[in-house]
Amino acid sequence: MAGKIYTVSQLNKYLRQQFDDDIILQNIMLKGEISNFKVHSSGHCYFTLKDNLASIKCVAFRFNAMKFRFAPQNGMKVIASGYISIYEKDGLYQLYVQNLAPEGIGELALAFEQLKNKLNDEGLFDSKYKKQLPFYPRRIGVVTSRTGAVIKDICHVAKRRNPLVKILLYSVLVQGENASKEIVQGIEFFNKKCPVDVIIIGRGGGSLEDLWAFNEENVIRAIFASKIPIISAVGHETDYTLSDLVSDVRAATPSQAAELAVVEKDALVNYIESLKRDCRYKAYNLFSIKENKFNLLWKHSIFSDKERLLQSRQQELDFLNERLNKVVTDKYVNKFHQMEVIAEKLKVLNPLNVLQRGFSIVKQDDKYIK
């Protein structure tokens, strides 16, 4: 006697239920090599995880893929965790990836290197984009936690070096999920709403994970886009973040950041005194040069023998006057002679003068002879 007949969809649904009921398959970790990696326009990631003998299809939905701190690539060895189930439409089982980590290297370390290389290729770390710190800042903006030691160290050093400098704090989270967003908001606040002469961003030391907010791409791009010079003071001297690479100046500690930003009052006073001495020295030299030049001019013959100079000029004036009179006279005589010549010509050609000399009218055969 034949058994019950099932439809394909019923079978796939049954198998899916079996997968879903299996405790091992609902929380499994697989290691392998990524191949055929593809990101759909929806943001979902599809790829194959394989080893030397077998392979399995994998999918990471958008909300899980967004949590990956590195960019998966073909050939990369990874550890994928998630659950296995049946895709009923095709009858294929696949791994639904909820988390992905590189094998043999820390996830954050790999993400750090990938982002570092990407931003370096774009030129964000190029020294030609670094801005000079102002010599005498009056207002310094600090982007850090209100409760941390960073702001206390900066204020202590700044006030000691120059009590006239004003410190403005934009309090932010310095680690955690929303830290990078708040840091970006702090940088934009000082650039757009509360102008300062220089910005210090920083926090105390910690692990790579603790400092990760200062490695986020949105923070790096906000630092690069800032019109105000930025000093990065993240962690201790041995700590290094991408914020240090993109900032205009990197300080090993927050205290050093304050020293770099604030010129010491005594040093400033000494600098002003040196400028005053330099100005006096240059003014004295300039005055001496002008005085010597004046003395040389005063000894010139134009001042030592004024009468002789005037006599010489008077004689020259008389000569020019005579020359001018001669030129005018010669010009007049020449024009007068030309006028007489022209008058004689007119007189000769005058028909009345011809008649005065006499004339006759001759006829022949009662006709005038012309």
TrEMBL record:
The top EC class, named as a word, is hydrolase
Superkingdom, according to UniProt? Bacteria
Kindly state which keywords UniProt assigns to this record, in alphabetical order.
Cytoplasm, Exonuclease, Hydrolase, Nuclease
Q: What is its EC number?
A: 3.1.11.6
- Where is each OB-fold nucleic acid binding domain found? 6-100
Q: Where is the Exonuclease VII large subunit C-terminal domain?
A: 124-340
Entry's transmembrane regions: none
> What PANTHER family does the database record attribute to this sequence?
EXODEOXYRIBONUCLEASE 7 LARGE SUBUNIT
NCBIfam families xref list: xseA
Protein name per Swiss-Prot or TrEMBL: Exodeoxyribonuclease VII large subunit
